[in-house]
Amino acid sequence: MKHLKVFEEFDDNSYDLTESDIKDILKRNDIPYSHIRILSEGGNGIVIDISDDKVLKVTMDKSEIYFAKKLIGVDSPNLVKIFKVWEEKYFHCILEEKLITELNNTISYFVSYMHKKNPINHRIETVSDDEVYEYFSTKLISLDKSNIIMLFNKYKEVYYECKKYGISIADFHGKNVGVRKNNPTSLVYFDISDPYNSYEI
What we know:
Blueprint: E1 4-6, E2 15-17, H1 19-28, E3 37-41, E4 45-49, E5 54-59, H2 62-70, E6 82-87, E7 92-97, H3 105-115, H4 129-136, H5 145-165, E8 177-180, E9 183-189
């Protein structure tokens, strides 16, 4: 594996993370793994596939750490399961469930439209089915009204779970939604953060 320079935007906190480093972190924390594979890299960290059912996130995003700590031990149908959050020398680690993230484009588009400024997302609890259909009928033309409303209701399920546990839905977009193998019909919000606010650990 190549050296992965994470957190490039923070010059004083840049760190080259190697496969050996990752294995050391997992062993020190008694976390079993069957493989080490980078799934994604972002401005604040990386996601590492370590087994059939878990991933390790390495992050410097304070809001992500804040929300992950709130979800430790929470069993929600629509929020990612967090098993452990801890601090390393240069960053934090989050051990969480592995989800299926390659979804139908229509679902990703729908969630991304809800993420954007629109006449619906500030009225989730009160907007009518007709208003939802009117907004999406010109954007997802392959879907009929019943399917648009079905997707909206699945989005609302995530919204209500976020509200229940005090989780920001601000960063819920098409790249942060997945499903579980045992329940492929419910949307699950992962990579939870809030880029618009600052949180202290």
